[in-house]
Amino acid sequence: TGDRVEVSVHVVDPASGRTLWSDRFERDARDVLALEADVVQHLGAALRLTLRADARERLAVVRAVTPAAYEEYLKGRYEWNSRTPQSLHRAIDHFARAIELDPTYAPAHAALADCYNQLGTVMVGTGSPQQFRPRAAAEAIKALQLDPLLAEAHATLGYVRHYDWQWAQAEHEFRRAIELNPNYSLVRIWYANLLMSRRRMDEAVQQAMVARDLDPFSLIVNTNVGWVLDFAGRHDDAVIQLRHAIELDSGYVQAHWRLADALWHAGRLREAIAEANHVVEIGGRSASAIGLLAIVYAQAGEPNRARPILGELLSRSQREYVPASTIADVYVALGNTDAAMTWFEKAFTERSNAIAYLVANPETARLRGDPRYEAILARVGLR
C-alpha cells in the first residue's frame, strides 16, 4: 500500500486446521529485507526453533534496498530461470538496472555473474567462455566485496572456479556457500556437478538429492538431478527424473536435452532421436541443439544423417560462435578421433565447460588411452 509492505503470516496445523500462530508485519518498502528477517525471527520463536548464532547475527544486520532495484532483481531472477539466450539477456538488463538503482546491492551483482556464467555454457552457447567467464568472476568478486557473507556470491564464484579447473578453490567456495546457507538449492546442484566431474559420483548424487528435497519444483534442480543420475550410470532413473522435470514445464529446453542424452545412454535410440529433434524444434535450431541431433543419429547407426549436420556446424562456425566441444562430440560419435581431438584442443583453449566433464562423460569414454586425450586431462588436473 503506497510505500508500505504488509505481510500477514498464519501457521496452520494441516490435520486439524487449527491456527497455531499468526502475526502481522509492516515496514517501508525499502526495508523489505528487514521485513523478511522479522518474519523469520518471530516464526522461529513461535515454533521454538533455535537459530544458529551466525543466522541471528545475519538477520540483525539486514540492510535496506531500493524498492525499484529489488523489483528489477526479482524480475531478473525470473528470466534467468528460463535459461534461454533471450531470457538471459533480458535478465542481464534487469540486473544492470538494479545495480544502477542501487550499486551496493550485492545479490544483483551475483545474479549478473550467474547470467554471464550461463551465456558461456555449451547448451546456451551464445559466446565463448573466454568472453563471459571473466565478467562473471568480476561480478561475483564485487558481490563478495559488498557482502562477504552472501552465499549466492560464494556459489557463483565456485561455479567460475570449477570451469577454470581450479578444483580445490571451487570446492572451498561451494562448501562456504553451503555453510552460510544450507538451504540454497543451486549451490548443492553446482557442487554436485563439480563432484560429478571428479567422478565422485556417490557424493554427487547425494548433493543432487538434497537440492531436490530443498526445491522440488525447480526446473534447474530437477533437470540437473537427471543429468547427475545419467552420468552416474543410472540411465533409467535419469529418464524418469527428466520426464518429471518436463511435466513441470514442457517447454524447458534443457530438460528435453538431458532426456535425449539419457535415452541414448540407456540404449533407447528411437526415443532419443525423437527427443533430439524436439530439442532442435523448441531450441530454435541452435548450433548446440543440432549438434545433439547429429550425435544421436551417429550413435543410432545413421552416420549419413549426422554428416550433413556436421557440415552445417562447420559452416556456421566460420561466421558465428559454435562451441568447439559440440563439433568435437559429433566427431567422437562418428568415430573420427583425430578430428575430435583437434576440436577438443580448441575447446580447451576457450575453456569450455565440457572439458571439466571429459572423464565423467560416457560419450568420451572411447577416447580413454589416446595420448592426446590423456594429455588434456593432465593439463586440467583430471589425471
Question: What's the quick description here?
Answer:
This protein has 383 residues and is mostly helical. The chain has 19 helices and two strands.
Describe this structure in words.
The chain is mostly helical. It has 19 helices and 2 strands. Strands 1-2 form a two-stranded antiparallel sheet. Strand 1 and strand 2 (19-28) form a beta hairpin. The longest helix is centred in the middle third of the chain and has 18 residues, at 129-146. The radius of gyration is 22 Å and the shape is elongated. The mean pLDDT is 94.
Detail the topology: elements first, then pairings.
Layout lengths: L3 E9 L6 E10 L3 H15 L6 H8 L6 H14 L4 H17 L4 H14 L9 H18 L4 H13 L3 H14 L4 H13 L3 H14 L4 H13 L3 H14 L4 H13 L3 H14 L4 H13 L3 H14 L7 H11 L2 H13 L21 H9 L4
Antiparallel strand pairs: 1-2
Work out the helix count. 19
How far from one another are the termini? 60 Å
Mean pLDDT: 94
What integer value in Å does the Rg equal? 22 Å
Q: What does the largest sheet look like?
A: 2 strands, antiparallel
Given as residue ranges, the uncertain stretches (5+ residues, pLDDT < 50) are none
The spatial strand order of the largest sheet comes to 1-2
Key terms:
single chain, 383 residues, 19 helices, 2 strands, two-stranded antiparallel ribbon
